[in-house]
Amino acid sequence: MLLIPCPNCGSRDETEFHYGGQAHVAYPENPAGLNDREWAEYLFYRDNTKGAFAERWLHSTGCRQWFNMLRDTVTYDIQAVYPMGTPRPATAKTNATDAGTASTAADSTTTGNAAPSTSSTSITASSTTAPEGATK
Fold first, then answer.
1. By the 8 A CB rule, do 83 and 7 touch?
2. Is the pTM higher than 0.85?
3. Where are the beta strands (DSSP E) in the chain?
4. What is the CATH number of domain 3-112?
5. Where are the domains of the chain?
6. CA distance 53 to 46
7. What's the CA angle centered on 78, arms 73 and 82, to 5 degrees?
8. Which of 76, 89, 121 has its CA nearest to residue 24?
9. Which pLDDT band holds residue 46 (cuts at 50, 70, 90)?
């Protein structure tokens, strides 16, 4: 379990909190002037960085207060907890080249290079060709 340091209540178990998404997403200055693409970018497009990431959290079963947290998405190390409305603190280590989530390792399941072994299973198929659109 992750212990999250609430700025009001102290360290508590992660089950007491709810994740609120990326922090510091500015509301559009002129919402009526946005087209559909711009609205979609505001509502749904978020950073997916590998490393330090600013997040919003709610202490839902405690003080019920929102706060921001700077957390490393790889190691889960909490680097800073700070109130809503304050700027993001500077991080000691920022590595922009590590952005992304897929692994390039030969045995990675995210790259599709490794498949489960089917040698111990018996599969009978009526057709040996893949359906249209399927990958080999």
1. yes
2. no
3. 3-6, 10-13, 18-22, 52-58, 66-72, 78-83
4. 3.30.2270.10
5. 3-112
6. 11
7. 115
8. 89
9. very high
